Amino acid sequence: MSPAGPALWVDEAAITDNARRLKGSHDLLAVVKADGFGLGGRTVAEAAARAGARMLAVTTVAEARAVVGLGLPVLSWLNPWGTDHTDPRTREVHLAVSSTTQLAEVVAAAVQVRERRAVHLFVDTGMSRDGCPREEWPALCTDALAAESAGAVRVVGVMGHLGCPDPHDPEHARAVRRFDRAVALARHTGLRPDLVHLAATAAALDAPHARYDAVRVGAGLVGIDPTGRSRLTPTATLTAPVVQVRQLRAGDLVGYGHDTRVLRSTQVALVPLGYADGLPRAASGRAQVWVAGRRRPVLGLVSMDQVVVELGRDPVPVGTEVTVFGPGTHGEPTVAEWARWSGTIEHEILTGVGARVPRCSRADRTSGTTDRLPGRVA
Ligand SMILES: *Cc1c(COP(=O)(O)O)cnc(C)c1O
After folding, report:
1. Which of 161, 195, 221 to mutate to test the pocket of ligand 1 (most atoms within 8 A of CB)?
2. pLDDT digits (tens, 9 = 90+) for 117-153
3. More exposed terminus of the chain, fewer Cβ within 10 Å: N or C?
4. Euclidean distance between CA atoms 292 and 265, whole angstroms
5. Tens digits of per-residue pLDDT, 76-118?
């Protein structure tokens, strides 16, 4: 079923293809946080599962609830103090633990429900972000071993995250060395993790030595190559129908404020997508969309719910499908271009697509008729 209005079309086969490429001969932890980078957590999880993913990963246990029950374990790594770890809906979720106090909280919950909790010890390799500070790591390992001996936890993994995935950056080498030392210390303490994981998308692509037992990738699944080298397949297409076409006269204003005035008579189309739907206002003045086989500029400021697109002397019927971004194969703008126009990265464009835009399967878009391809009249 195609919606009458805007839609984010998700290419599940491309996600599976990306997952397979990133996985290689390793295990794959498919990161489906932020609702699968905006494409739909379950959709991305299922597509990654078809490529043989071993585990899913999200930020909080609240996020995990959307993807438990797919037959894969789920790892969650950034849970606020006070999270209810006894909740039966998420009791199977593996927890990354970044401090001794957090471990104590997890142990208390495990003792309360009399179940051994699967944990991954998370070490900070130099980002000063999540993960256990290096000074606290020996204590975390010791406490984890004690908790394991007491039957409260099972240390299944040791993980880190890289701030500099570029293998030629000296900070990268330093972080990998820190991680190696942390893993060695965990083993020396007596822990026997069978899943050591460090690399996210960029390192999975460029730093084979950082792959360890498993790669933990998110952006790459949805087609983002963080190095900008576009080695993965784009997976999302954002479309909306033209809802109105009108003739402007020279001197007419467009949108909010009085900065945008057309200099000559022209036709414009109204497209019902705005910054609440993920078109950054910062892209105003630069952004383009694809309409009827051609790129057309967005005129004036992006509004919350709509943009005006200049058609010039080349009008289209109301209902014509506008492609905001897509794989780029027909000439339509890409997510990478929107990121450039907005001064941001592709991740922010994809995760920013608003909740009111329905996520649809690309399979439904191409099956049946060809008249919903980018630029054709719907
Ligand atoms: C987001 C995140 C990932 C996934 O990173 P990508 O670059 O999207 O593959 C992996 N690990 C942690 C800790 C993260 O926060």
Report:
1. 161
2. 999 999 999 999 999 999 999 999 999 999 999 999 9
3. N
4. 20
5. 999 999 999 999 999 999 999 999 999 999 999 999 999 999 9
CB of 28 sitting under 6 A from ligand 1? no
Q: CA quadruple 202, 204, 207, 211: dihedral positive or negative?
A: positive
How far apart CA 75 and CA 299 sit, in angstroms, is 44
Count other Cβ atoms within 10 Å, centred on residue 297. Answer: 15
Q: Which amino acid is at 344?
A: T
| H or E stretch covering 326 | none
275 catalytic? Reply is no
Per-residue DSSP letters for 75-86?
A: EE--PPTT--TT
What is the reported pTM?
A: 0.95
Taking the C-alpha atoms of residue 141 and residue 320, their distance in angstroms, rounded to an integer, is 60
- The span from the CA of 205 to the CA of 224, in Å, is 11
**What pLDDT does 375 receive?**
45
- Write down the H helix ranges in the chain: 12-23, 33-37, 41-50, 61-64, 100-113, 137-149, 170-189, 201-206, 335-342, 346-351, 362-366
For 55-79, write each residue's pLDDT tens digit. 999 999 999 999 999 999 999 999 9
Which residue's alpha carbon is nearest to atom 12 within ligand 1? 161
Verify whether ligand 1 is closer than 6 Å to residue 217 (CB atom): yes
165 confidence band (pLDDT: 50, 70, 90): confident
